[in-house]
Amino acid sequence: MAGGSDAARAPPPLPPWPPAPLRHRYFALRHGESEANVAGIIIADPAVGTQRYGLTPAGRAAVAAAAEAFAASALASTGEASHPVALVASDFTRTRETAEVFGETLAGLGKASTLELSEAMRERYFGELEGGPNSRYGEVWAEDSQDPRAEPFGAESAASVWGRTTGLVSRLEAELPNDGRLVVIVSHGDALQILQTAFQGVSPAEHRSLQHLRPAELRELQPSVAPPAQAAG
């Protein structure tokens, strides 16, 4: 009886991801310090986040430093004949400004880039917690760890974020020329942590077990050889 009940609650497995070896190198870049970070508030509603709460001067400086480090490491290893870096960013103000600063810094170093704004990489929606203290993120994360389909406080589920962010990468794989491009995905903490679970082959329920991305931190996303992720831990 109990076994049947557990089976009924168990979610179906997520599809294998990536379905084939990736043709490009992917990097996650969390936005630099924003005005919302300084205020300690949750800004996840696109109606607000796409219009306000951009980067602080310190956030801009940190993003520029990340771009310089990227040019000196990842870009240097590809040689001068490399293709333009593909920047794909959430259309929130803080991520758009991050991508712009990153691209401008690369341009100043003689490195070309392109920029696409994508709703698929927007901040995770936190429902009733919008505008409240960011100390309440933990309440949602606790529910994630039990069931990535959960929507506490009307928040977007971790499974939903997994679907849209992996969908973005799959689209880039299909649309970008097959030339081994460097792709920098500029987004938000939860969106990038959850996308990283897909690369590492673990459940989105475990996103808080991964090393946290600091503001303006750049991290390469490398696919794991682990079995495909499941929707619940």
From TrEMBL:
InterPro entries in the cross-refs: His_Pase_superF_clade-1 (IPR013078), His_PPase_superfam (IPR029033)
Highest taxon, organism lineage: Eukaryota
Descriptive protein name: Phosphoglycerate mutase
Species this protein is from: Pyrodinium bahamense
Organism phylogeny: Eukaryota, Sar, Alveolata, Dinophyceae, Gonyaulacales
